Amino acid sequence: MAVSALQIVHRHLRSVSAATIQALHVLDDVPAGTDGSNELDTHAEAAALGANWRVLDTNGELVDVSGFSNELSTPTNIPIVRAGSVYLDPATGAEYLLVIDQAMYFGSRMSHSLINPNQIRHYGHSLCDGPYDPHRDLELKCEGNDFMIPFQVRGVNVSFDTRAPTDEEKESLQQIVLTGPEWRPEEIRMVGRINVDRRRRVCREFAQAMSRRRCFMDEML
Questions:
Q1: Spatial separation of the C-alpha atoms in residues 18 and 187, rounded to whole Å
Q2: Tell me: the pLDDT tens digits for 110-129?
Q3: Which of 61, 146, 176, 195 has a CA positioned 20 to 30 A from the CA of residue 136?
Q4: Taking a C-beta distance cutoff of 8 angstroms, is the pair 53, 62 a contact?
């Protein structure tokens, strides 16, 4: 399924058992080792995980979503999961299990995954996905440790690559948690934070400009 945007249009209020979710064929597992890209996309209200992620746990919640795809029908009964994917650190060669909570799981129906960068920021991590930002590197920096992921630019997309873990890797690899257990995009109200240093600089420059204006007015009088 080719998807460019996903919006949650309905949440099933009744908690559904894992067995029921499996019976609905919406929790299709993917082969370990399946690799794919993770594109940063704010048009996906929550992370939409494809074949490069495997489920670690479910919370019994299903959602219906709308979006642009090559399918005529709107995807329904999409499970909300906690999932993991293996990331290879290019600098050290070490492998980590990235963990995303509160994600929509599409499994083999999507060859790649869509990650909402604001969902990661909401958990406290620092993330720059602006290729034209001259002041920061294009990367994710995790709060509380030195772990980081440098991003790649492919055409107009910013992304990073991971692969589906084995059952052993789901248990043995060090976990890097990217998102938290609380994410309700329909309830989130993001407020931009004002950089304190920038605010002070603007105020100082304004005060200096006003001072020069007063001196000019005094000279004119």
A1: 26
A2: 899 999 999 999 999 999 99
A3: 176
A4: no
Provide the 10 A C-beta neighbour count for residue 156.
6
Computed over every residue of the chain, the mean pLDDT equals 80
pLDDT (mean) for 52-63: 89
Cβ atoms of 159 and 39 within 8 Å: the answer is yes
Q: Give residue 43's pLDDT.
A: 83
* Amino acid letter, 7: Q
Q: In sequence order, what are the beta bridge partners of 99?
A: 84, 177
Cβ density class 96-110: b for 16+ within 10 Å, e for less: bbbbbbbbbbbbebb
Task: Report the C-alpha gap between 171 and 159 in whole angstroms.
Answer: 26
**What is each CA distance from 213 to 95, 199, 203, 217, 218, in whole angstroms?**
60, 21, 15, 6, 9
Element (H, E) at 199: helix 196-220
